[in-house]
UniProtKB/TrEMBL annotation, chain B:
Membrane topology listed for this record: Multi-pass membrane protein
Pfam families: COX4_pro
UniProt name for this protein: Oxidase
Subcellular location: Cell membrane
Keyword Transmembrane tagged: yes
Keywords: Cell membrane, Membrane, Transmembrane, Transmembrane helix
Cellular component aspect of the GO annotation: plasma membrane
Transmembrane helix keyword on record: yes
Signal sequence residues: none
Organismal lineage: Bacteria, Pseudomonadati, Planctomycetota, Planctomycetia, Planctomycetales
Classification via InterPro entries: Caa3_sub_IV, Cyt_c_oxidase_su4_prok
Membrane-crossing segments per the record: 12-33, 40-62, 68-88
Principal subcellular localization: membrane
């Protein structure tokens, strides 16, 4: 009496039983969450889900599943060299699968489609733009405090440091810096201060929730508020305005100048201009253009996506755990391939059991592909 | 690791492979065709189930295994299906509302207070 299969196979099937529950927990929760949501991001522009890459990966896993089953058949027929060949193909296909998955993940990371990082409303999207600009300002200001060009008791206080950055073109060179180094800092300070102003202006408009057309947190703003009739409000800040402001920053930089143009007034006082000189102006315009590129790379276009975070969580938890299973499968096949030409019938059960495991990995993907890529 | 009981079943694995490839193509086709969303979902999931059955029956040899497969897989399948059913009433029905219930009720309380207060003031004026 007893179950008429080897113990190892029984063990594998029992393990697969737990695996079924493991993945059904994710897939079932995903279906329930999706059905319970009043919307779900499905457009490519939102999700960057690439059906073609998903389809290719499905094909890759099907081919690998076929190779495994044929490898097991070859093992049973004691045709070990053939079995090894098929297992090699399977392992290479597993690498290919992970490579394609890596490309998909990179696309998500490049567009910041990550759990907890997706703005779901317009206001969240605007705050995210301000936060990312702030991060850039902090990084730029850190260069001055770190090199002791600016000595500050509280280097993290960028609002306190900003006047020091603004005054740098007319400041005296610290003895720790060479003349060329200090001039480079003077030139960049003009651009960095302009970036700071852009960030602060946007931040103040977000806090006050007024249109970029109206001044925020100034005497004019307060006067305008006084003039309002009871219950009336200043025009609220719109996502489109922030989007336009950011697009301008990304194309022309924080200073609004093109190469060869004279510096605008906001870049500094006449003393500052004298300090930087013509060569300095060229450097400033070049830095401004460079900064536009930096803003493009570091600050994402505002793109609110309702239910985006729960979508990203589901996507990464399901595909991530599936990818871990693929890696485990590769290790199982690697153990067989390590035997080289000394592979023998003692490994037949191993190949059968790892084949069962691999088919299960394929089975999970069979459901993930339509659920994540098509529906 | 060895055992001599490896029965060979004459399965045309290549045919199963082509069926799986065809089904994948069918899934993509259903996505490309502009059909009502509900129809696409049903068709695509039906194809996924067909693919899963093919893999389990032929690649995993369940078609040729004894009745132990039911003993082994029935409990896990029941539990796996049970989880989404258990989750559905709590999460599957509008789990994600924008207005926080406690804030809404607080606003209601304030409105109620103001109404009562206004009535009391008016009453006092008379």
């Amino acid at each position: 009496m007893g179950i008429p299969i080897p113990n190892s196979k029984l063990g594998m099937w029992l393990f697969l039983g737990t695996e079924i529950m493991f993945f059904t927990a994710f897939i079932g929760s995903y279906i329930v969450l999706r059905l319970g949501s009043n919307g779900w991001p499905t457009r490519y522009e939102d999700t960057h889900i690439n059906v073609l890459l998903g389809g290719i990966n499905t094909f890759v896993l099907i081919v690998s599943s076929y190779c495994v089953v044929v490898a097991h058949e070859a093992m049973a027929q004691k045709s070990f060299a053939r079995a090894r060949g098929y297992l090699w193909v399977t392992t290479i296909l597993a690498f290919l699968f992970l490579g394609i998955k890596g490309i998909e993940y990179k696309g998500k990371i490049d567009h910041d489609i990550l759990p907890g990082r997706i703005p779901e409303t317009s206001s969240q999207a605007m705050v995210k733009v301000a936060d990312q600009l702030e991060e850039l300002v902090r990084e730029r200001f850190h260069a001055y405090t770190h090199a002791d060009v600016i000595k500050a008791e509280r280097p993290a206080d960028i609002i306190g440091i900003a006047p020091l950055v603004q005054a740098l073109p007319s400041a005296e060179r610290p003895s720790s810096l060479t003349d060329a180094e200090f001039k480079a800092f003077q030139a960049s300070s003009v651009v960095d201060y302009a970036l700071f102003q852009q960030w602060l202006d946007l931040k103040q408009h977000i806090v006050a929730d007024v249109s970029l057309d109206s001044p925020a947190l100034t005497a004019d703003y307060l006067a305008k508020r006084e003039e309002l009739a009871e219950g009336a409000r200043l025009p609220a800040l719109k996502l489109e305005e922030v989007r336009e402001r950011l697009a301008r920053l990304k194309t022309s930089g924080p200073l609004k100048v093109k190469a060869g143009d004279a510096l605008p007034e906001q870049s500094g006082s006449p003393e500052q201009a004298a300090a930087t000189g013509d060569a300095g102006q060229d450097a400033v315009t070049a830095l401004n253009t460079q900064m536009a590129g930096l803003i493009s790379a570091r600050v994402f276009d505002p793109h609110p996506m309702v239910y985006g975070n729960i979508f990203a969580s589901c996507y990464f938890i399901m595909t991530g755990f599936h990818a871990i299973h693929v890696i485990v499968g590769m290790i199982l096949f690697g153990m067989v391939l390590k035997q080289g030409s000394s592979l023998n019938e003692r490994w037949t059960d191993w190949v059968e059991n790892s084949g069962l495991y691999w088919h299960f990995v394929d089975l999970v993907w069979i459901f993930l592909f339509p659920l994540l890529y098509i529906i | 690791m060895s055992h001599d009981d490896h029965q060979t079943h004459h399965v045309n694995y290549l045919a199963v492979f082509f069926v799986l490839c065809g089904c994948t193509g069918l899934s993509v086709l259903f996505d490309v065709l502009s059909m009502p969303k509900g129809v696409t979902i049903v068709l695509v999931l039906a194809v996924a189930c067909a693919k899963a059955m093919s893999v389990m029956m032929y690649f995993m040899h369940l078609k040729f295994e004894g009745n132990w497969k039911y003993v082994l897989l029935a409990p896990t399948t029941i539990l796996a299906i049970g989880l989404p059913i258990a989750l559905f009433p709590d999460i599957g029905r509008s789990y994600y509302i924008n207005a926080a219930p406690q804030v809404t009720s607080w606003a209601d309380e304030v409105a109620e207070y103001e109404r009562e207060h206004a009535a009391a003031t008016e009453g006092g004026a008379h």
